[in-house]
Amino acid sequence: MRARIILTTALASALVTPTATALPARPAHADEAPLRTIVDDRGRTLILHGLNTAGSAKGPSGLPWIDRTDVVREARELGSNSVRYLIQWKNIEPEPGRYDDEYLDDVAERVSWYREQGMHVILDMHQDIYGPAACEGSGNGAPAWATHTDGLPCTPQTPWVLTYVQPAVIRAYDHFWNNTGDHPELKQRYTAMWKHVAERFADDPAVLGYDLYNEPFGGTRQFGFFEGPILTPFYQGIVDAIRKVDRDNWIFVEPQALGPNEGAETSLEAVRDPRPGAPRLVFAPHFYPGGVDIGGSYDGFTELLVKAQFLLWKRNMPAAARRLGMPMWLGEVGGMPASAPGAAEFTGDWLDMADELGIGWAYWSNDPGGGGVIDGDGDPTPFAELLARPYPRAVAGTPTEISYDGTSLTVGWRARSGTSGPTEIWFPTDSPVVTSTDPKGTWKYRWDAERRVLSVWADPDGATHTVTVKP
C-alpha cells in the first residue's frame, strides 16, 4: 500500500497542472443484475481458473521458463483450465513493420502444450514501466524504436512502481498515447501488430482470446482524462482491426491500473464489437490492494485497509462490467510472498470473492519462489494447495451460486436456451459424493478420475439446478 499511496500522491502533484481538475469517474450505476458470462462453443458459461505464465517471459527472449511437464502439472494438480500467457511487443515487432514470426512460432509451440491439456489460452500483451528502453534496468513491453524519452533521466526506484513517475518513463507513455501530438504512428503500429498476432492465432483451438494491454498507464493523462478520451478509442481501434482477421475469439480490455487495481471506479467507456452475433468482449481488471502486492501483510491495521479495498473492488468492478455490458475476469491477483503475515488468509478471501461474483481468475504467477505456486526446488508452495480449489469449469447455463466451505462445493445454475453438454466440475479428491436438487432419475453424472473432472447432466425439464460435491 505504501508504494501505491506514494505513487498516487506523486501523480497528483507531478501530472495534474494547476489549472486542471480531475474529472470524476463515470458513475457505475451498480445493480443486482447478473453479470454476463464468457461462453464456450456449446453455450456453457466458462469459469476460468489458471496462472499467469510467467514473470520470466518479461525477459529478453519474451518466453517463459516452462516446459510441457509444467503445463501438465498445472492442469492435473491445480485443476487449471486456462492460462494468461505473456507476450511482448518488442519480441513481435523488433523493427517497425517487421514481425518476428519465429518468435510467434515459439509461442505457438507453447500454446500447443496447453491445447494438449484442454486448457484455454488468453494471450496477454504485457508491459510494465513502458519498456526496457525507457529506463535502463527496468521495464518490459515496448521495443526500443517505439520508445521516445527525449533524453529525460530515469533511475529505477524501490518499490518498483515508483519508477512509473520517472521523467523518461512518463515521456515515453505520453508519446505512445500521443499526448504530445508528436507520435501518432505508435498507436497505429501497435494496432497493426495486434492484427498480425490475431491472424496468426485465430484458428488455434486453444486460444480463447487476447488481452490487449497490460495495466494501462496514461503518462500525464490519468483517470477521467485518460480512460474515456484516450484508452477507450485505442481499444476500439484494436478491436476493429482484430475483427478483420478473427471474428470469434474473445477480446479482453483492462481499465487503467492506478486506482481500479485497488478498487476505485473506472472511467472506461463502452467498446463496440463489430462481429456478427453477440459481442465477445471481456472486462479484465486486476486486484492488487495496497500493502499486499509489494510484499506487505494482511494483518492488523493493514488488513482493515485491505478489506475496505475488497469492498470497493467488489462494488465498483462488477458495476463497471454491467455498465459496459461485458463479462468480467480477474486477470491478475496475488503477488504476496508465502511468508508474509496473512498470505493464506488474503488468498482465501479473494478466492471467496471470485466465487461469490461467479468470475474466473489468473493468479500471479507460476514463477518459482516468492508468491508462486512452486518454490525454488520445484515443490508446491502453500499457494498451490489454496488454488487447487474445487470449482465449476463449465456450467450448462447461468451460474447462480458457487460456494466452497473448505470441504464441499455447491454449484447452482439457471438453464439457458442454446446450451448443450454437461456442467463440468473439477474436484481434487478421489470418488466424490454427488447430490442434486433435481428429481431422482432425471439427472446423471460421470467421474473422470484421471482429470478429476465431474460431468453432470441435469434434468432437461428443470429451470434451476443445484449440485453439491463432497469428498
From TrEMBL:
Similarity comment: family membership: Belongs to the glycosyl hydrolase 5 (cellulase A) family.
Pfam family, one: Glyco_hydro_5_C
Molecular function terms, GO-annotated: endoglycosylceramidase activity
Class in the EC hierarchy, top level: hydrolase
InterPro entries for this protein: GH, GH5_C, Glyco_hydro_5, Glyco_hydro_5_CS, Glyco_hydro_b, Glycosphingolipid_Hydrolases, YD
EC number: 3.2.1.123
Keyword Hydrolase among record annotations: yes
First and last residue of the signal peptide: 1-22
Keywords: Glycosidase, Hydrolase, Signal
The Glycoside hydrolase family 5 C-terminal domain, residue ranges: 389-469
Stated name of the protein: Endoglycosylceramidase
Signal among keywords: yes
Lineage, broadest ranks: Bacteria, Bacillati, Actinomycetota, Actinomycetes, Streptosporangiales
Native source organism of the sequence: Actinomadura algeriensis
Top-level division of the source organism's lineage: Bacteria
Residues covered by the Glycoside hydrolase family domain: 42-368
